Amino acid sequence: MNLSAAEEESAQEIHIPADIDWEMLDKSKFFLLGAALFSGVSATLYPVVLVKTRQQVAQTQLSGIRTALSIVKHEGFRALYRGFGTSLTGTIPARALYMAALEVTKSNVGSATVKLGVPEPSAAAIANAVAGLSAAMAAQLVWTPIDVVSQRLMVQGSHPSCSSPCRYVNGIDAFRKIINTDGPKGLYRGFGISIITYAPSNAVWWASYSVAQRFVWGGIGCYFWKKDDESNENGSSNNNTIRPDSKTVMAVQGVSAALAGGVSALITMPLDTIKTRLQVLDGEENGRRGPTIAQTVRNLVKEGGWFACYRGLGPRWASMSMSATTMITTYEFLKRLSAKNQGSLM
């Protein structure tokens, strides 16, 4: 993959290792290694997600750090991983479904848009956006029930800020009680707003990631172009092709992912807060008759004004940026490990 590195008058090009599409992957290796790698990522970021969830359902607002310290002080360090087993059980099949939908859609849409005469940069952005949208919608079929159960476990605790009226022994117990109280539809409480939250967020994220990568590579190209001009003035030889090493490629991917993740977090934060309330706090208070989105918004505004919709923004921003960075670097690394022909990637 060659990207124009600077202004039009520069002949400098950056040679980046070829992208790996669905047909180039060893599927069994891809899913097996993916389950292991993303389980590690989930374990690392889980405490941040728990703190964000506690903030969203709390009646009073505390900072993310104070919330975390309060949890450790009153409930112990293990409380930061409450519900993790349930979350991990669902994450593995959800991630597999997400990755399969993402790669198949991206490969097919990318090929179709290029055949229609769409320029390669625009085709890549369109393919990434459509792939992110379809992957998020497919994965929510698994993620929503897991979210409902794991979030119920997250918010229960001995500290007063945990206002969950129902107590659960573990994920299986929570699953059984939700089914007994609300029926199967209780596991899909907030499914609609989850789709509204995550599908556009993923579309924006993947499209932004594609654009951010080209922007960052362009900046790197400008740097090398200016450096090359200085070398020419000193009589050094000129090499029009830049071949970045694997560390540089990974760094660019990480920075691009963090930028896209931060923007997505800011845009979708109110929807995420409403979704969490629907799935956890307000759902339990209303029993079988689930609350509407309008009722949930009114409750939030009554508690803290419109800024209450942004409770947990700090942890979510950090979580999404860190998650995006670790996810994309892990994901790209996973694809290279799972490629059928390693020699063709150079």
Task: Describe it.
- The structure is a single chain.
- With 346 residues, the protein is an all-alpha fold.
- It is built from 10 helices and 3 strands.
- The protein has helices spanning 27-57, 64-75, 84-115, 120-155, 171-182, 191-233, 246-279, 281-286, 293-304, 313-337, and strands at residues 2-4, 13-15, 241-242.
- The protein has a 3-stranded mixed sheet, with helices on one face.
- The chain is globular, with a radius of gyration of 23 Å.
- 42% of the residues are buried.
Computed Rg: 23 Å
CATH class: Mainly Alpha
Q: How do the SSEs run, as a string of H and E?
A: EEHHHHHHEHHHH
Q: What is the number of strand segments? A: 3
Secondary-structure content class: mainly alpha
The stretches of 5 or more residues where confidence is low (pLDDT under 50) are: 2-11, 282-287
Strand order of the largest sheet: 1-2-3
The name of the CATH topology is Mitochondrial carrier fold
Beta-strand percentage range: under 5%
Question: Fraction of residues in helices?
Answer: over 70%
Biggest β-sheet strands, sense, barrel: 3 strands, mixed
Task: Label the CATH architecture.
Answer: Alpha/alpha barrel
- Overall morphology: globular
Number of helices: 10
Q: Structurally, how many domains make up the residues?
A: 1
Question: Can you say what the CATH homologous superfamily is?
Answer: Mitochondrial carrier domain
Distance between the termini: 10 Å
Kindly report the average pLDDT value. 79
Subcellular location: Membrane
Solcar repeats: 27-108, 123-215, 248-337
Family: Belongs to the mitochondrial carrier (TC 2.A.29) family.
Main location: membrane
